[in-house]
């Protein structure tokens, strides 16, 4: 099966020899290598290749201008030291599923597209799903132009360096209007399928999720000469807030994580003047998430006051609950339900995806492939070859059911 050779080609791109994880950040050399690979796969199959204004790549079989196209795909970029499967599994499986369809001699009745969405993880510029958000009009051109990476390079400069025109970005409703269904295959980012003993699942919904920045401002001073009683140490209130986040999430059946922190002046022998912590939180329902965030913020304000520290909380991004298109979901269940070897449970997820962004504009669905470790955004993320092949065949069945009948 072509899956293996494609997978092997992509495997070394952007891999850190130190961590074994991937560093395929938007518009860096590793990302451009992945994009070159995508184009090469498209052209090798005689597909019509195009890069859109927002940095997404498309490969078409049939003319998308006919409308009602069926599109599949995912992303090729990664988080810092990410695993091999998050994103690439969906793109590689898409090409492999197309090969499978051709092998079956299936005749298309609708245009079929494969897409690689740009900058899905947001690892470089801090906002996830930039390519699909821009296309769907969920990110303004002004806000996109202001995105800046850790080295001070703006998104426009990064796009320009890669040969793109940053002034051309923006909503692309004509493109979306041509798509009748989008199906994203993705490695599962949890253990639901492992626990249920199934290879492949169908997504029901994406939990509402967001990112909040907590700025605790105190007073820098000497770590050796400042009496404990005289300190205004923001690290203390930050540390207590981290514990409060865990507590609130546990109580509510949600998740909350402080995974990134910036400290000023960041010296071993200095009491910090500023501790900036980023909170990521997700919950099955909106009201649960509101309760969790409200509880964490209330606790943080109390801790800040206790230590004479100022606190500012800024919501940096937010994605409401995404219910995938029920009709399309039922259609997938019907198509896959005819395969006696495959049980396909329907499951929710706490992870965001381009499919979630697009669900506001077009019917979307997702397939998950079992990940025995349940780990994601880490080199420990995994999927067996047999399960990857089962994913490809399920995707081929879905594409055949949607685009060939
Ligand atoms: Zn992903």
From TrEMBL:
GO terms for molecular function: hydrolase activity. It comes from the Bacteria. The keyword Cell inner membrane does not apply. InterPro entries: Amidase_Cbmase, Bact_exopeptidase_dim_dom, Peptidase_M20. Pfam families: Peptidase_M20. Keywords: Hydrolase. CDD domains: M20_bAS. PANTHER family: ALLANTOATE AMIDOHYDROLASE (PTHR32494:SF5), ALLANTOATE DEIMINASE-RELATED (PTHR32494). Belongs to the peptidase M20 family. This is Zn-dependent hydrolase.
């Amino acid at each position: 099966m072509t899956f293996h050779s494609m997978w092997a080609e992509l495997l070394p791109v952007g891999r850190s020899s130190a961590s074994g994880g991937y560093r395929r950040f938007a518009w860096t050399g590793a990302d451009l290598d992945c994009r070159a690979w995508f184009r090469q796969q498209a052209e090798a199959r005689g597909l019509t290749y195009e890069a859109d204004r927002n940095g997404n790549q498309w490969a078409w079989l049939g003319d998308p201008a006919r409308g009602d196209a069926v599109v599949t795909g995912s992303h090729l970029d990664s988080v810092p030291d990410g695993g091999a499967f998050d994103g690439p599994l969906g793109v590689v499986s898409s090409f492999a599923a197309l090969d499978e369809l051709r092998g079956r001699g299936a005749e298309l009745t609708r245009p079929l597209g494969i897409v690689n969405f740009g900058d899905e993880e947001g690892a470089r510029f801090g906002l996830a799903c930039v390519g699909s958000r821009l296309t769907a009009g969920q990110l303004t051109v002004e806000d996109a132009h202001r995105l800046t990476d850790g080295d001070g390079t703006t998104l426009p400069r990064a796009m320009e360096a890669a040969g793109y025109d940053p002034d051309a970005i923006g909503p692309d409703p004509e493109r979306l209007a041509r798509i009748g269904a989008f199906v994203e295959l993705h490695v599962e980012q949890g253990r639901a399928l492992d626990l249920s003993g199934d290879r492949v699942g169908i997504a029901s919904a994406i939990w509402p999720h967001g990112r909040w920045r907590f700025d605790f401002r105190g007073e820098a001073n000497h770590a050796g000469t400042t009496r404990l009683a005289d300190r205004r140490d923001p690290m203390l209130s930050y540390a207590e807030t981290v514990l409060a986040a865990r507590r609130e999430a546990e109580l509510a059946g949600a998740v909350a994580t402080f995974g990134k922190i910036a400290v000023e002046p960041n010296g071993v022998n200095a009491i910090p003047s500023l501790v900036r912590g980023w909170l990521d939180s997700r919950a099955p329902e909106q009201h649960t998430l509101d309760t969790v965030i409200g509880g964490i913020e209330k606790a943080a304000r109390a801790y800040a006051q206790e230590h004479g520290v100022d606190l500012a909380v800024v919501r940096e991004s937010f994605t409401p609950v995404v219910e995938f298109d029920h009709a399309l979901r039922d259609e997938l269940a019907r198509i896959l339900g005819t395969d006696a070897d495959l049980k396909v449970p329907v499951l929710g997820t706490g992870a965001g995806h381009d499919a979630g962004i697009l669900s506001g504009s077009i019917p979307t669905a997702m397939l998950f492939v079992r990940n025995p470790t349940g780990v994601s955004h880490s080199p420990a993320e995994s999927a067996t070859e047999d399960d990857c092949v089962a994913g490809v065949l399920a995707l081929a069945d879905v594409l055949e059911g949607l685009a060939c009948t």
